[in-house]
Amino acid sequence: MITITVKKRNGSYTEFVSKGHAGYAEAGQDIVCAAVSALIITTVNSLESFTEEKFQAEEKDGFVSIHFHGSQNTDQGKLLMDSLLLGLTEIAHNYNNRYLTVRVKEV
């Protein structure tokens, strides 16, 4: 199962962490994992290319983290993260939270 934890403070994103594998199908055939990966990779690339957001991203097998620097996200950064969260939440609901869980915590 993929577990995603998102931390927010005063409406701004501070941290995003994705851990694990969906387990929907074998590696290379797992459409849930592919969908989640595509959303996350596109968001990280978009944050880097289209915003002035200050963040650090890390990736390794079954793990992605985004740590935001500063107390407020840019408007564009917040919109991109809101969109990522919407997409991930829809995937989780479509698969009855069986392969993906999304948690948002106010810190």
Question: How would you sum up this structure, described in words?
Answer:
There is one protein chain. The protein is α+β, with helices and mostly antiparallel strands and 107 residues long. The chain has one domain: Cysteine protease Prp (Alpha-Beta Plaits), CATH 3.30.70.1490. The protein is built from 2 helices and 5 strands, in the order E-E-H-E-E-H-E. Strands 3-4-2-1-5 form a 5-stranded mixed sheet, with helices on one face. It is globular. The mean pLDDT is 97.
- Quaternary structure of the protein: single chain
Structural class: alpha+beta
Taking pLDDT < 50 over at least 5 consecutive residues as the criterion, the unreliable ranges are: none
Number of domains: 1
The secondary-structure element order is EEHEEHE
Strand content: 25-35%
Might you state the CATH topology name? Answer: Alpha-Beta Plaits
Write down the overall geometry.
globular
Overall pLDDT score: 97
How many helices does DSSP assign? 2
Main beta-sheet annotation: 5 strands, mixed
Rounded to the nearest angstrom, the distance between the terminal CA atoms is 24 Å
CATH class: Alpha Beta
Topology:
Layout: E1 2-9, E2 12-19, H1 31-50, E3 55-60, E4 63-68, H2 75-94, E5 100-106
Parallel strand pairs: 1-5
Antiparallel strand pairs: 1-2, 2-4, 3-4
